[in-house]
Structures are given as structure tokens and as C-alpha cells.
Amino acid sequence: MGIFKTSILSFGAMILGSQLAHAETLTIATVNNDDMIVMQKLSAEWEKSSGNKLNWVVLEENVLRQRVTTDIATKGGQFDIVTIGALETPIWGKSGWLNQLDDLGDDYDYADLFPSVKNGLSADGKLYAVPFYAESSFTMYNTDLFEQAGLKMPEQPTWTQIAEFAEKLTDKSKEQYGICLRGKPGWGENMALITLMANVWGGTWFDNNWQPQLTSEPWKKAVNFYVDTMNKYGPPGATANGFNENQALFAAGHCGIWVDATSAAGRLYNKDTSKVVDKVGYAKGPGEVTDVGNGWFWAWALAIPSTSTKTDAAKSFVKWATSKDYVQLVAKTNGVVTSPPGTRKSTYTEEYLKAAPFAEMTQKAILTADPSKPTRDPVPYTGISFVIIPEYQGIGTTTGQAIAGALAGQSSVDDALQSAQDNAVEAMTQAGYIK
Amino acid sequence: MKKSRNSLIAGIIGWTSAVVMFFPIFWMVLTSFKSEIDAVVPSILFEPTLQSYVDVNSRANYFHYALNSLVESVGSTVLALIIGLPAAYACAFYPGKRTKDLLLWMLSTKMMPAVGVLVPMYLLFRDAGLLDTRIGLVILFTLSNLPIVIWMLYSFFKDVPTPILEAGRMDGARFWTQMRYILIPISLPGIASTALLSIILCWNEAFWSLNLSASQSGPLTAFIASFSSPEGLFWAKLSAASTLAVAPILIMGWITQRQLVRGLTFGAVK
Amino acid sequence: MAARSRDVRTGPLLAPAVGVLLFWMIVPLALTLWFSFQRYNLQNPLITGFAGITNYRLLLSNARLWISIFNTLVLVSSVLGITVVAGIIFAVVFDQDFPGRNIARLLVTAPFFIMPTVSALIWKNLLMHPVNGFFSYVSRWLGLPVVDWFVQAPMFSVIMIVAWQWIPFATLILVTAMQSLDREQLEAARMDGAKGFSMFWNITLPHLLRPISVVVMIECIFLLSVFAEILVTTSGGPGLATTNLSYFIYMRALLQWDVGGASAGGVIAIVLANIVAAFLIRTFAKNLERD
């Protein structure tokens, strides 16, 4: 009896084993943004249909970047799928640290991806990560406050105009601030915005010989304008405010104007967390001397490290999570407005454009943001609100710290830029760009 | 007369500082029972809800992380005691010329800044196959707390009256019997408080546990890292996750505080 | 005592501890030293080779390094000062009998059990937040201007948070030390007409000297490498206001991915830690040995 039972069991196990030969457990690292939390919830469907299992490592953005970079650069092999951005993807792809993702099959419909998004995630014409959501930046404003003050936002404002509006909208006794901008130091936080400002004042990060340009006139003007405007019309504690903090302030109705990511618009449309659902107006990113480089390009994308031994299963997941079907699944379960924006043409259906008043402006901003021509004057680099070289994270963050110091009144703008310039020269010398 | 006035003043100062020191923790627990909308308004009156706890648990499996914390901090404490007891014994009862230097050297190994050696350690762990394993973190915690453990045990042992041990030794009792029947019973409070301190330090260690773990071995410090930045309104969720992360160790600390205090009185600080 | 050490072979007893610690110290230290002379950027595999002393030269000529060393010393000494003073006061207070003393003591020591990340998060978001924090609510209620803590007084804020975590440790040790104070001696002194303060100064404080040394030494080890509190609250800023040596090295290693430079920073930090340790030992070791 015992033997009989055992053999039945082992026979059963054999059959099961052959059926589940491809059942894998994948480790996926992702950032704790709302859209990824939704993905984590919905991924149960993929687990059910594919028979695979996902282990999630959900971390705050900076910690995630530090974990993933350490692991990938040392070939630690801890992750099968990682969430990375438009800055790392081309660099890591070129280094051979990522699997190519050009072969997900015809039904993935590569032609449906926005070309600018696809290019942003490619190196030497090969795709190394697939976009989960993509964003540009634009101007958001509180239409209630604008009406009360009798103001009208042009479709393409300049920073000078923005400051004039901000002045009229500020009433600190009512905790009403004319303008909210990022102040938290970091290449992906305050420097994303400040680089855009330097761009439209006609500045660049580096000249054609890779000499840092942080002490040039455009940078000085742009940063002085930023510090001055924020001190006069910004909220308290601005040096601690990044994207999320400003979103909370704007959603609570404290801000008149907010220049930030297009992906914020969908979140401001959520009645549970926003008091300004139908009071948000949209305009293009502010220009000044020029309009070139007034909106950034950023994408959160899924990639598969070359150290992963489970590439087939991993590919099946990234294909699922960035497909048309997934966008529709989100639309169906959480409402069409919460669809992951900015990656696919097919997302922008008539229904979506109608339900989401910001969708058209978002689409426009993403289509015009061109990382290959980031500034008015020719430069040796690509990327709009950052520079796609490995050294940029360090240079950008140090510069961001110095500018946050100037914003907090710890040093003058000129001193801050001078110390940032010195640091940038040091880093570029060390890396061998300048001799 | 004078005594009662003294105790009145002490009572006022004592309770005021107790309230001030404990307030942040009280506020965290209170906020964790608010809804997100209530959490941004500093009010005492609100409708309590468990929603934040539900949200936190639907995003991350709390018990998985809590179990890791428990296994890793207790495991490394046991290991550190096993290695540390003989060493502390030797230093305390048979000191040589170099004993003092040895103890100070041990302590100085703790001064290496963790961030500076992350990459070397990551490479070592990768080659040893210890990345994202509980055993890896147990080893790491053991090594990093060993100096403190030895140091505390040493100062407890120094307070054991030598004649007792002397008698034991003449009876021919060897190290382990001496340990088992004389030293451990006598200095048990000291050993217990050493163990408690070690568990607390391991539980709260946040750099290595985050950087050397992925999905399998992450303790509560990794759990908290996914709630530590705002996503719109997040104050209540943050408070709930924080409360969950510190509750076990806080409760353990309170229950065993008498033990901790007794141990400390017994040894290092007399 | 020394003669007896010949009777017993302590080698086998010490070997495991010394062995693992030696490994733990030498292997990372050797690797760190090695990397500190390399050109090694984690993000850029094209940068390789021997760097000579370039990493050290760049680091030592960097004003940020000196500022961060200065900040480290400010942080360590302020927190030590605050915790020791508060610890002594609490030790005296909790030595008196008053209603609910044990519960009050539990509450005072509670912060020691809170993990640094969590305590930084609570202080930053729930208490010191300039718009939604409890302190700003109190200031508004009292009609005072709202303080933007991490901008107007960044170092003070960090010191406050770290001190909050370590006061309980000092209190725990000093309270227990008070219990072994000779009561008869106190009574005798009182008979001789000694007043409260002079009694404290001449009897209590000398009695606490040794436990204070313990507090200072153990806290020093942890305070030299304070990191999570700064990462969570100020990210070393604004400017460099709260960048200590640990955070400076973190910026090199995990924001600039400059492993060579970070390793050189690590070596400098070890040297600094040993200088501080040597200083402490000279000052306090006598207290420890006295018995």
C-alpha cells in the first residue's frame, strides 16, 4: 500500500514537474510610486496565468537606485527585473549590464511606443528597457486662485511672467504660496527643474570640450531668479520639498503655480488625495531667453540585468506590465484617468483624452521633449534635465546641495555655483574628460 | 518634611521629562490610527481607524520581515555570546600585558565607517554566496557586535570575586565546568543584559541589513524603507509602518528592562 | 595576577574572537586600502587602473572633507554633552522616590529602542514639518512664527534627534549606577551640614565618573558614524550644514559611485576614529581601571 501510494505520488509529481518546468520565482525591484504599487497589486493576474511567482522589493527612489546600481555594477545577481530610469538605461545598456529587449514578439507592438520614449531607452539603436510610464514637465496652476486674482495663464509662459503671477497669488497669512518648486537636493530632484531653468536662460552644463559651465551668466541669472522667487513667493521648508512634497502641497490647495512632471496631473485627479481635482489648469513649461529645453524627458522602465538566469520568465513579465493590455487593465480596474501615461500611442484614446483634461498637454510635452537636442547652443551630451554620462549623478547631486544651501541662505548664489563648479571640474578631471 | 519636598520636585521633573521624551512615540502611535486626511491636522479628537494598518499589510508582508528581524538578531546574539564568553573570560581572569591593548583594539574594529566598505563587503558576500541570506546577515551582525559584547562581558566578569573562582579551579574544574557552574550563574544578569543590548542593536541596524538583503532576508529596517517617502498623503501609513517596526523591540525592552538594569548595576557601572 | 596567566593557556579561549575580528578588520581594510589607490567608478567600467595618490590628493584638497570633519566633531561633542548632562539630571531625579517613578522611567528610556530610521522619520514628518508638523501647529496656536527647523537650524535639529535617541542610554546606565551610591556616606555628609549642591558636587558626581566614562566611550563609537538620521532628514544639507564624515563618504560611494575616492575617505575616517579613540582612552581609561 505504502509503496503503491508513493509511486502514485511520484508519478503525479513527475507530471506536475513537467508541466511546471518553467515555473520560476523572480525577484523584482521597484520604486514606491503609486503606479508601481498598482502594478504590484495587479501582478497577481500575471502570476496566475503564467504560473510564475514574484518576490517584490519595493524601496524609496534613492535607496532603490543605490541598491540596484550596487548589485548590477558588481554583478551581484540579486534581481531578475529592475526598475530604472532614462538616465541609467543608455549607460548600462552600453556597458553590457542589461539584456536587450528587442525580441518580445510582434504582439508587443513596438510601433505603438512613442518614438522619443523608445529612443530614450535605447543605446546604439538597441532597446534595453521597456517603458512603464513616461513623463515630461509642464506648468500646472490653480484655476480658482487665478480667477480670484483676475489672472490668465498664456499657453507658453515665461519665467518672468510666472514670477509676476506668483507675486499676486501669494498670501502667506492664509498659507497660500504663489509658486511651489522643487528644493530638495538631488540630481533627480531640484536639479531636474534648475537644469530646465538654466536651459531656457540659454545655459548648458558643459561646453563642447566638456568644461563645466556652472559659473556662466545664464546659470547665475537662472539660479538667482530661482532663489529670489522661492524666497519671496515659495512655501516654508522649500529645501525639503521634492516632487512628492510639492504634490501634497498643491493637492491641498496651498500653491498657485507648480512647474513639475506631467505625471502629477493624473494623481491630482484622484478625489481621495486631492482637493483641487477640477481646479487645475495646464500650460507649457516656462521659457525665457529661449524655449529650447523647457520640458524634461523621464521614463520609469523595466529592465532585465544580464546576470539574471531566468530571462524567459522575466521577459514575459516585463512584456505583460508594459503592454497595451496592461494599460487597459488599469483603466478597467482603477479608472481610465489612472492609466500609466506617456508610453503608448494607443493609450491616448478619445475616451482617455475626454476623461483626462491634462492628457493632450501631456502628450504634446512628451512628443516635443527631445533629449538629443537639449539646449539652444550645441553640446556634446544628450538628456534635457540631466546629462547622460556616468559621472552626472554625482555632479548633479553635489550641485543640487550647493544650490539648496543658497536657497536656505547659507551661502550666496555665486559662492554656491563656484563651489559646484570646482567640484564638477574635479569630477570631470578624475574621469578623464578634461585633461 | 524636606524629603517630601524633594520627592515632589523630583516627581514634577521626572514626569515632565517622561512626557516630553515619550511624546514623539505617543504621537506616532496616535497618528497611525488616524485616516490620512485627519493625520495632517494635528488633532486629538478623531475617528480611529485601522485602515493604515490594512494598507501597509497589503503592500508588504509584515510577518515575513518581523520573523527575519527576530531570527537575525537572536541568532547573531547567540553566536556573539558563544565566541565572546571565552574571550571575555580569558581577558578578565588571566590578563596579560597586552590584554588592555587587545580589548581596545577589538573596540576599534567597530569604528570602520560602514559606507566606506560597502563595495568590498558586497563583493565578498557575492563570492561567498551570502547575499540576501539570513546566515549572511547573522554573520555580519555577529562580527559588528562582538566587540561590544566582549567588552561588556569583560566588565561583568571583573566584578566576580576571584576567591570563588579560585576555589573552583583548585578543585580541578576546567573552563567549561567553571563556566557552567560558577561563572554563568553568578553573572547571569550581566550576560542577560549584554544579550538584550546586542539584540536591540541588531534589530535597529539599518545600513547593512538594507544593502545586503533583497527579498528573502530583509528585516524590519528594509520593511520601513518602502514607506519612508511621501506619496501624496502618507503620514498615517508611515506611522502605522513605523509602529509595527518598533513595537516588538519596544515591548521586549520594557518587559526586560528590570533585567537590563540589574545587569548593568551588577557590572560595568558600579 | 600576571603570574597566573602562565598557569592557564588563554590562547584557545581568545583565538575564536581574535580570529574573526582580525578577519573582519583586515579583509575589508585591505580591500579598502587597495581600492583607495584605484580608479574605480561603479557606474563607469571604462575607468580603471592604478590611481597613485590621486584619490587622496583630490580628497584632502576638497574643502568639503574638512567641513564634514568639523561637522562630525560638532555633532559628536554636542550630543555627548547633552546626553551626559541630561543623564546625570535624570539619574538624580529618578533616585528620588515619587509616585509612578518606574513608569516614568520606562517612558524616558523608550526612545533607545526605536530604530534610527524610524525616529528620524517621526521627527521630520510628524513633529518638525513646517506645514503639517506638531511643532508648527503649537507655534501657530501660540501666535509665534513657525520655525522651519531643517532650514533655519539644521545642525541643531539633527543634534536634537540624535540626543533624543541617546539620552535614554546615558540615563539607563547612570540611574543604575546611582543605586550603588553609599547612602550612609550621604547621610553623614548631610549631618555635617553639606547642602544639596555641594553634596552632589563632592559625592554624587565623583561616584558617577566611571559610568560616565562608559557612556562616553560607547556613545562615541556610535556617534562618529551617525548616518541614517542625516540621510532621512536633511540629506547633509542645506549646503553642507549637516554633512558629517559618514555622509560625505556616502555621497562619494553611493551618489557619485566613486569607489576609489570613497575608499580613500574610509581610510581617512578610520584614522580620525583612531585619533578620537586614543584621545578618549587617555582621558578616560584611568577612570575605567580604577577599582
TrEMBL record, chain A:
InterPro entries xrefs: Bact_solute-bd_prot1, SBP
Compartments, record wording: Periplasm
Pfam families in UniProt: SBP_bac_1
Entry keywords, A to Z: Periplasm, Signal
Superkingdom assignment: Bacteria
Statement: the UniProt record of this protein carries the keyword Signal: yes
Residues in the signal sequence: 1-23
PANTHER family: ARABINOSE-BINDING PROTEIN-RELATED (PTHR43649), DIACETYLCHITOBIOSE BINDING PROTEIN DASA (PTHR43649:SF12)
Family of the protein in this entry: Belongs to the bacterial solute-binding protein 1 family.
Listed name of the protein: ABC-type glycerol-3-phosphate transport system substrate-binding protein
Automatic annotation (TrEMBL), chain B:
SUPFAM superfamilies: MetI-like
Pfam families xref list: BPD_transp_1
Membrane-traversing stretches: 7-30, 74-95, 102-123, 135-157, 178-201, 234-255
Coiled coil: none
Keywords: Cell membrane, Membrane, Transmembrane, Transmembrane helix, Transport
Superkingdom of the source species: Bacteria
Domain named ABC transmembrane type-1: residues: 66-256
Record-stated family: Belongs to the binding-protein-dependent transport system permease family.
Protein name from the UniProt record: Sorbitol/mannitol transport system permease protein
Automatic annotation (TrEMBL), chain C:
InterPro entries in alphabetical order: MetI-like, MetI-like_sf
Primary residence: membrane
Localization annotation: Cell membrane
UniProt keyword list: Cell membrane, Membrane, Transmembrane, Transmembrane helix, Transport
PROSITE patterns (UniProt xref): ABC_TM1
Membrane topology value: Multi-pass membrane protein
Domain of life: Bacteria
All residue ranges annotated as the ABC transmembrane type-1 domain in the record: 69-280
Bilayer-spanning residue ranges: 12-37, 65-94, 106-123, 149-175, 208-228, 259-281
Gene3D superfamilies xref list: MetI-like (1.10.3720.10)
Family recorded in the similarity comment: Belongs to the binding-protein-dependent transport system permease family.
Protein name listed in UniProt: Sorbitol/mannitol transport system permease protein
Species, as recorded: Pararhizobium capsulatum DSM 1112
